[in-house]
Every structure is written in C-alpha cells, then in structure tokens.
Specification:
single chain, about 850 residues, alpha/beta, Rossmann fold, 4 domains, about 40% helix, GPCR_3_CS
Length: about 850
C-alpha cells in the first residue's frame, strides 16, 4: 500500500464546504467579496439526488456537441448535446454510479448516519462541455434566476472524465478548490504528474503500463513491422510517444504513424487508409477511443480493407458497439488489452428500472429508448419518430446498455464511487491524535498533508492506489472472435500483471486466439508482420541505407564464418582449427591435408621405388661385369659409390610421403642433402680423375699420383663432410619441425615441415648447387678429350640436367603450399636422380648388355683396328 493524497483533499473539501455536525469544528470558506454573482446561464444535470455530501459525475452521454456561437455579444445558449443519439454504453456508466451511491446509502456500516448525493452531467465527449459541467457543479445553484451566489459549493469529489483530454482540463479547474477527481477511463501517462495534477486520481491503470504490455506482445509474436494509429488528443499523443520509447529497446519498428483527424474528415480518413493499404505492415496498433474509431471505421469498411491484425488499447478493445456483424469481417481477430473486469451483482436489475414510465421528464431516458428501439416514448413534432408500443423490454434487447456480462469501465465507475465513500468514511471516523495532519490532528486546520493509506475490498478485489494516484496495473488480453449469431464476442485469452517481475508479466493462451483473416475456426498460425523476411541460419542482416533497422537484406556469411540463429546481426568466425560448412551454419573441423598415399603420393612412391630398383639393377650389372673394360676404365669404386648414393636419393622421397613428424621433418632435408652431396662429390671425384687421366698422358705431367684411390676417398668424404657439418649446425640451432599451415587455404589445415631456419635450408641447397656447378665446369673443360667413350661428356649432360631441375625447383617450391611443396621437392629429387642415373649409366649398361664387342679397352680408347 502507498500513501495517497485523496483523503487529504477530501479533508480540504470538508474544511471549505462541509457543515456536518460531526465536523462542526471545521471553518467554512468566507463568502466572496463581490457584491453580486450573476448567473448568466445554467447547465442542468441529467440525474441529481440531494445528500449530505454531493459527488459529481461526468460521462460522455453523447459524442457530438452542437457548438454555440460564443461571441460574447449576447447571452450564450444552453448546451446542446443532441447532435446524435444517446451513447448507451456511457449511459450505463452513469447508472452504475447511481447504483453505487444507492448501495452506499443503504449500507449501515459504510458512512453511517450520512448520505451521498450526486449530480450527473453530460460532457458530450468534449472538453469544453465538461468544463461547463464542472463549473455548474461548483456553483451549487440550480435556479437560473438567482442573482447572487452566496453559498460555497457542496461538491465533495468528481467521478470522471472518460477521455484523458477532458480530464486534463477538468482537473486543472478543480485543482484550486482542492476537489479530488477520480477518473474511470482516463489512462494518459501525463496525468501521473503529481506536480501538474495533484488532485487527480484514477481507478484505471496508466498507459505507462499499457504501452509496456503492447510492446511485450509485439515482441512475443515477433511483429517487428507495425503501423500506429492514434487519436488527435493527449491520450493518443502520450500513448504513442510512450510506445515509441518502449520500442527503442526492442527490435520492433514503426512503419508509419497516423493520426485520426479531429474533427474527422472523409479525405483525411482515406489518406490514412491509403497508407495502410500500401504498407507491408500487417499489424496496426490503435490508441483511439470509440468516438474517434466509429467514424473512421465506417469509411474503413467501405474501402474493403482486410488482412489487418488490429492491436487495440483499452479505449478501443472492449467497445461493445463494435460487436455488430458488419464489423467482424474487418475487425475479427483483433487483440488487445482491456482493463480488468469485475462483477456487480445488482447492476442488471438496476438498469432495468430505468424506463420512460419511471422518468417521464428525463430527456436522457427518452433518448435511450429512441437509441435502442428507434421509437419515441412520448412522440412530438421534434423527434419525428414513431411512438413506442410500451411493450419494449430491456431484458429482451441485446444492447450496449444492458451488456453486463463483462463490465470493465462500468466496474471502474463502481470502484471510484466506493473509493470516495471509503475515503470519506475514514475522514469522518478520524480520532484526535491519530489524524493525518500535523501533530496527528484531524481536519481542523488549513495545514493539509497527504493522509493515510487507502485500502478497501470490493467484490473480493483489493483496491488501492500508488504514490501517483494510479491503480494496480492489471489488464486482460481480449480477442475478438465470432459468436454463435455472427456477432463479435470479446474472449479473454491471457493477462498482463504489471506487479510481477520483468519478463513474467505477460501470460498468453495462444491456442485460444483467433487471428485476423480466420473467420471460421480458431487458427494457430500467427500473422506475420515484418519489413524483411527473417534471415535463415547461414545469413546475416545487412541494414538498408536510410531505412529502419527492421528493413534489411540477408547476406550469406563469408567462408570461415557461420550464423546458427535466425536473424543474426553478424556472422561468427570459426576457431582456427575449424571451418564453416557449405550452409555456413556450423563450424566443422578443417580437413587436414599432407602428402599421403593418395594418387599423387602413390605415384611418387612408385617412381621412388622404381628408381631405386633401376639403380640396384645397374649396380648388379656393374658388379657382375666388374672385370670388364668399361667398368674398370670408369673407376668401378666411384661408380659403386655413385650408385649407392643414387639409391639413397631415390629412397629419400619416401620421407616426404606421410604425416609429418618431428623425426621425419629433420630427416627429410638432411638425408636428401647429404646423399645428394655424396653423389655429387663422387661425380666430382670421377670428373677430376677423368680430367687428370688424360692430362697425365702429356709429357711432364704426373698428376695421377695425387689422385690415387685414397686421395679420391678423401675428396669425397671431405666434400660430403662439409654438408654434414651444415646439416648438424641446422639441426642443433633451429631444426625443421612439423607445422600446421592455416593461412594458405583457410578451409584446410596443411600439415607440413617447416624448415626452421630458412638460411640453413638455402645453404644446404646452395652447397649442392655449388658442387654441381663446379662439377659441370670441370666436365665441360674435358668434353673434347680423345676417345670413343668420353666420360666427361656424360658428366656434363648429367650436371646440366641436374642444375636445370633444381633451378626450376626454386620458384615452384616457393609458390607451392604444404603437400604440394613436398611433392615438388620429391619430384625434383626423383627427376635429378633419374637424370644422373640415365646420363651416367645408361650408355654403359647398354654397351655391357647389348654391345659386349665394344666393351674393350682398345675401343674405349679409340685404338681398335679398323
């Protein structure tokens, strides 16, 4: 419970106006100092009853006002609210106020020995008329020809008004007199400002909660593209502002915001309907009252606009006038928030007591009959209606007046009267020392302060107010469904309880909802109202330039990124070892690639084994014919060394096939570099021997003594040892190691052997190249030496092929990733090995196997007889 200023205001009214014996110590206001108070016009109430305390009631019994010409040059005419027929729904509200006062006066516990009276006025749904009604209440004079106003107003409080715009005006008029006003239907958030409206209270929740409820509903049903229709008044203005502010924290956008013109014009209505028809928004939120919507909907029906899902506020959602058959094809499925309904046990019986026979002089009762039955109970030349038969019975007429099945605003009127009665009751029972004012005094001074808590129960419901004068935020969720007779029935399908925690306020029974467009049975399919279709997983939203965030394009995620949710704002980058699938909806493990025993690996393996077998076969041939001239002349020991080194070179390729490991990476480059260095060193030794052998035949040259077998072994081992030292330093400093290359092709992980030290790697290759170049130069110098079998020529060709292969290898190796780099290096090893094998041994093997007659020393030296 919270403190409330309502009682203190009632106290101030008692200070200024009440003369009851129980408050005899209260001083009354001094009469005005003016000598005369001329009453220039009167505004008679529709219903009035005398009592100890008078409550004013203001209801929109008509919706149209015939505006008088107020130019100030003559006496203003009386208020004329008879431009249209009586509004039966508001007439029911007025009768509910009368019923509540009657019940209170008959209650022996509540306000004992005191009676309440009432003055009920018609506001015509217009602030100006409501203002004149309040002034008439304050005058307290009913005789038109009274010349002097000498008595203070006996008005205790005012029940009203229906519209927020009217309540703003009336509250400001009542504020200087400290007369509280309790509204039954004014929900504008602006009225919660206690600085501007300290005397205003209401039994309807503030729109502050209603816009929250509507925003929650829009988010709940994923309606992200909606239209907004409001009335041209403070209620519509503040409600629309509140909703827009609430939607800023959501993903809901407003496609358009239109205002029903006041006064309504046909052209203005058609312009709004054109916007609604052309917009892709299929959900329209309405903040407008019955009077504004009635004229608008007449034109809306003629335009035959369907497929709109209406979301109504409390001022629109429970209007029984829209339950007629003609509205259902266009408004069926409407959903919105209605104020909490209650139960008034005697209401139906009390409403039946209102008839022309009982109130023959009451114009409003006559208009009720004309509105319900289209006849006049007392025909005259003015009404131009047929006379009533006198048999018309309210029980048999299903009208807005007799609709008491689910009273909402009616129940609010009932609660408002009881709130005033309980407040006055507590005031009258105030005991000195327990009062609400300074020093806990009762109403005996002008020093007014907010009083104690308001707390009472009615029909099992606990009624109280918060510090802003608002009631508990509670709404029923109402759905418009087709009734058995083709009319519209208002069905409760959920609730909104603003007292609960955030996220738990909204409770919707979706299986009971009938949506717009489904007129035969309840459908589960929720209408779709979006500016852009949802982006499926695998796509992201790209906002269109210059358009709201709800309008976007769906862009596929880039490779390596995913979105596994609908309407993802951005795509998520996959972890380093993962990649996006084809749909870009999940990260999957990257495919690991290395030179394995697939088609390429098998081809290299076969070539490697075949090369090694050829080399061994040549070695076998040379071994079997080791005593022949061609083997002996070409230094058989060096030939076997070369064949041994070539066999190792062919087998080195096998180290490049398979998953890289720490040991295989170190062996790959070091093994092939040492074996090639050994092979080239042997070839270099053979080149030197060939060159020295032919040079030694010249007089004075005895160079062969420096190139004996031991010297040759020393040259080979020394040249090879240099490469061994380089490889040892490489392995000690920064050895090669297995690595995962994820940069070259991001969708794969390429397992490769990193060289560790690029300098060491190129030093190894450079040393082999240096040996090959030196060997090529020496062999080139000896290419023209005499003899039928010049070994220097074959060495020259072999070194030429070797250098060409490895020069082509360098750019190919640098531009190839992972397993392809390994394949390029393996191919270079095989190509150079095959080149050396065929250039150095193919011709010799040919002579040994196929031309044995040429396998003589004389033939080789070119000295055979012809």
């Amino acid at each position: 419970m919270t403190s409330l200023a309502l009682f203190s205001l009632l106290c101030s009214i008692s200070v200024l106006t009440l003369t009851d014996s129980s408050l005899s110590g209260i001083t009354t206001a001094a009469p005005p100092t003016a000598s005369k108070c001329n009453l220039l016009n009167s505004f008679q109430p529709g219903f009035f009853v005398q009592g100890d305390y008078v409550i004013g009631g203001i209801f929109p019994l008509h919706f149209n006002l015939k505006k008088p010409d107020l130019n100030g040059t003559y006496r203003p005419p009386p208020i004329d609210c008879n431009g249209h027929r009586l509004y039966p729904r508001a007439f029911r509200w007025a009768q509910t106020m009368r019923l509540a006062v009657e019940e209170i006066n008959q209650n022996p516990v509540l306000l004992p020995n005191h009676t309440l009276g009432y003055n009920i006025y018609d506001s015509c749904g217009y602030p100006l008329t409501g203002q004149r009604a309040v002034l008439s209440m304050l005058n307290g004079v009913s005789e038109e020809n009274s010349s002097v106003c000498t008595n203070a107003s006996s008005l205790l409080a005012v029940i009203g008004a229906a519209g927020s715009a009217q309540s703003i005006v009336l509250s400001r008029i009542l504020q200087p007199f400290r007369i509280p006003m309790i509204s039954y239907a004014s929900s504008c958030t602006c009225l919660s400002d206690r600085q501007k409206y300290p005397t205003f209270f209401r039994v309807i929740p503030s729109d502050y909660y209603q816009v929250k409820a509507i925003a929650r509903m829009l988010v709940h049903f994923n309606w992200t593209w909606v239209g907004l229709l409001r009335g041209d008044n403070d209620y519509g203005l503040f409600a629309a502002k509140g909703l827009l502010k609430e939607l800023q924290e959501t993903k809901v956008c407003v496609a358009y915001q239109e205002m029903i013109p006041l006064p309504y014009t046909h052209q203005g209505g058609l312009r709004i309907m054109k916007v609604m028809r052309s917009s892709t928004a299929k959900v329209v939120v309405v903040f407008a009252n019955e009077g504004e919507m009635t004229t608008f909907l007449r034109d809306y029906i003629t335009q035959n606009i369907t497929g709109i899902q209406w979301v109504g506020s409390d001022a629109f959602i429970s209007v029984s006038a829209f339950s007629e058959r003609e509205y259902y094809p266009y408004l069926g499925g409407t959903i919105g928030f209605g104020i909490k309904k209650g139960h008034i046990s005697r209401l139906g019986d009390f409403l039946q007591t209102v008839n022309p026979n009982r109130y023959p002089d009451n114009v409003l009762v006559h208009e009720l009959w004309e509105s319900l039955y289209g006849c006049s109970p007392f025909p005259s030349s003015v009404t131009q209606m047929p006379p009533c038969s006198g048999q018309e019975t309210l029980l048999e007429h299903n009208s807005a007046y007799m609709n008491t099945s689910s009273p909402r605003i009616t129940y609010n009127v009932y609660k408002a009267v009881y709130a005033i009665a309980h407040s006055l009751h507590n005031l009258l029972l105030c005991q000195p020392g327990r009062g609400p004012f300074q020093n806990k005094s009762c109403a005996k001074s002008n020093n007014i302060h907010p009083w104690q808590e308001v707390n009472f129960q009615i029909a099992g419901e606990e009624v109280d107010f918060d510090a802003k004068g608002d009631s508990v935020p509670y709404y029923d969720i109402v759905n418009w469904q087709r009734g058995s007779e083709g009319n519209t029935e208002f069905i409760d399908v959920g609730l909104f309880d603003g007292t609960k925690a955030v996220g738990e306020e909204l409770l919707i029974q979706e299986d009971r909802i009938m949506w717009a467009g489904h007129q035969s049975e309840i459908e589960m399919e929720v209408p779709v109202s979006v500016c852009s279709a949802s982006c499926l997983p695998g796509f992201r939203k790209a906002v269109r330039r210059g358009e709201p965030i709800c309008c976007f394009d769906c862009v596929p995620c880039d490779s390596g990124k995913i979105s596994n949710q609908t309407n993802s704002v951005d795509c998520t980058i996959c972890p380093e070892d993962f990649w996006s699938n084809n749909d870009r909806t999940a990260c999957i493990s990257k495919k690991v690639e290395y030179l394995t025993f697939d088609s390429l690996g098998i081809a290299l393996t076969v070539m490697s084994v075949v090369g090694a077998c050829f080399t061994l076969a040549v070695c076998g041939v040379f071994f079997c014919h080791r005593h022949t001239a061609i083997v002996r002349v070409n230094n058989s020991e060096l030939s076997f060394f070369i064949l041994f080194a070539l066999t190792l070179c062919f087998l080195c390729c096998l180290l490049f096939i398979g998953k890289p490991t720490y040991w295989s990476c170190m062996l790959r480059h070091t093994a092939f570099s040492i074996t090639f260095s050994l092979c080239i060193s042997c070839i270099l030794g053979k080149t030197l021997v060939v060159l020295a052998a032919f040079t030694a035949t010249r007089p004075g040259h005895n160079i062969m003594k420096w190139l004996g077998p031991n010297q040759q072994r020393t040259i080979i081992s020394s040249c090879t040892m240099v490469q061994v030292v380089i490889c040892a330093a490489w392995l000690i400093d920064v050895p090669p190691f297995p690595s995962r290359n994820t940069q070259y092709e991001r969708s794969k992980i390429i397992l490769e052997c990193s060289v560790g030290s690029s300098l060491a790697f190129w030093c190894v290759l450079g040393y082999i190249g240096l040996q090959a170049c030196l060997c090529f130069v020496l062999a080139f110098l000896a290419r023209k030496l005499p003899g039928n079998f010049n070994e220097a020529k074959f060495i020259t060709f072999s070194m030429l092929i070797f250098c060409a292969v490895w020069l082509a290898f360098i750019p190919a190796y640098i531009s190839s990733p992972g397993n392809y780099a390994d394949a390029v290096e393996s191919f270079a090893i095989l190509a150079s090995s095959f080149g050396l094998l065929f250039c150095l041994f193919a011709s010799k093997s040919y002579i040994i196997l196929l031309k044995p007659e040429k396998n003589t020393k004389q033939h080789l030296m070119g000295k055979e007889k012809k």
